[in-house]
Design brief:
The strands form two sheets. A seven-stranded parallel beta sheet has the order 6-5-4-3-2-1-9, with helices on both faces. A two-stranded antiparallel ribbon has the order 7-8. The protein has a single domain, classed as Alpha-Beta Barrel (TIM Barrel). With 313 residues, the protein is an alpha/beta fold. It is globular, with a radius of gyration of 19 Å. The longest helix is centred in the N-terminal third of the chain and has 17 residues, at 12-28. The protein has helices spanning 5-10, 12-28, 52-55, 65-77, 95-104, 136-143, 147-161, 184-191, 218-230, 243-248, 301-308; strands at 35-39, 83-87, 109-113, 125-131, 170-176, 197-202, 255-256, 259-260, 268-271. The two termini are 33 Å apart. 42% of the residues are buried. Helices cover 35% and strands 14% of the residues. Helix 4 (65-77) packs parallel to helix 5 (95-104). The structure holds S-adenosylmethionine (SAM) and iron/sulfur cluster (SF4) (2 copies). One iron/sulfur cluster binds at residues 44, 46-48, 51, 53-54, 88-90, 114.
Length: 313
């Protein structure tokens, strides 16, 4: 995993297309997706209290490897999407599909996982995004008893088994909510010695009054300021969120009610487990009558980073 010089040379056509997309947007307001996300599975081994995926889950089939190959062609390759995130459900339960994406998009695929199943080195996977939602007790109150210990063990085992650079393959993703926001510093301290990066985003509610949402105001602002002040204390951009992205997450940056306004929904093409496009974004749904995320309270990292860099809806 990771990118060497020869890999970068091989990828130059992809960089060329990303460059064209950015120029197209800046000078001609042309909107073409830069990233992709795919829910490769309709099953999860956990039922986390904060999870959007369970809200709109439907009992239908999943796609075969052959069918995913067609989706990759139609939805991602044709549109010259640069990097694809595999999500779910729990994507590590479909290693066959991960392998396919890794083959079709070598070193431009990352896997978002709860890390409760052993992590396997797969040639062509760029890195694992492992979700950690607080220190052990808080994480388990969100993800279920014993979840933290399993994930911790699987990360450390992966690093031990896969050579001295394996730590580079593991990035932590923490979704901050009203239960875990006081543990952010501890999570950074705990994982800094082991993994490559950590990224933060905020819980995004699907209903007003969701008690997990950390309201705009002094506590959220102080937390964001705290994270920004911690960034220079750790090497190599260990905390990956740029300060300007964190700044905008102090308030509404996305839209009004459930309608995206500044949010660049076009920047990421997201498909569900049937390969259908989800709307309005990666936490939305392909079904028109599905529950919708509340854009004005959104804390998603993958879209807010575009807004912070001047790319809007
Ligand atoms: C739906 S999960 C799928 C991948 C895998 N099962 C996992 O837990 O990492 C993808 C990410 O979305 C985050 N997530 C779930 N519900 C969320 C919400 N309402 N707002 C923001 N992020 C959320 C999870 O914490 C996780 O990091
Ligand atoms: S493990 Fe991931 S997909 Fe499963 S319930 Fe938790 S956040 Fe949702
Ligand atoms: S990422 Fe989704 S929920 Fe957030 S503002 Fe954009 S469309 Fe709305």
């Amino acid at each position: 995993m990771g990118r060497g010089f020869s890999q970068i040379i091989r990828e130059s056509p992809a960089y060329f297309h990303v460059g064209l997309k950015i120029i197209g947007y800046k000078f001609f307001s042309r909107r073409s997706p830069i990233y992709g996300s795919a829910d490769i599975i309709n099953v999860c081994n956990l039922h986390c209290t904060h999870c959007y995926w369970w809200l709109n889950r439907k009992e239908n089939e999943e796609l075969s490897v052959e069918q995913w190959k067609k989706v990759i062609e139609e939805k991602f390759k044709k549109k010259h999407v640069f990097l694809i995130t595999l999500v779910g459900g729990e994507p590590t339960l479909r290693p066959d599909v991960i392998q396919l994406f890794a083959k079709e998009y070598p070193n431009r695929v990352c896997v978002v996982s709860n890390g409760t199943l052993p992590l396997v080195k797969i040639q062509g996977v760029y890195f694992y995004w492992i979700s950690i939602d607080g220190t052990e007790q808080i994480h388990d109150s969100i993800r279920g008893k014993g979840a933290y210990e399993k994930t911790r063990k699987n990360i450390l085992d992966y690093i031990e088994k896969n050579g001295e650079k394996a730590w580079k393959d593991v990035w932590i993703s923490m979704t901050i909510n009203s239960l875990n926001y006081k543990t952010v510093r501890d999570v950074i301290e705990e994982w800094y010695p082991h993994v490559n990066k950590i990224g933060f985003q905020f819980h995004t509610p699907f209903m007003k009054g969701d008690p997990l949402w950390l309201p705009y105001g002094s506590e959220r602002t102080n937390l964001v300021d705290d994270i920004i002040s911690l960034k220079p204390k750790y090497d190599d951009d260990f905390i990956i969120n740029p300060a300007k992205q964190l700044e905008i997450m102090k308030q509404n940056w996305g839209g009004k009610g459930t309608t995206p306004i500044d949010c660049p929904t076009w920047s990421i093409i997201s498909v569900d487990h049937m390969g259908r496009e989800k709307r309005p974004c990666c936490i939305g749904s392909a079904e028109v009558d599905a529950l919708k995320p509340i854009c004005e309270d959104c804390g998603l990292g993958c879209y807010s980073v575009f807004v912070a860099n001047g790319m809007k809806g």
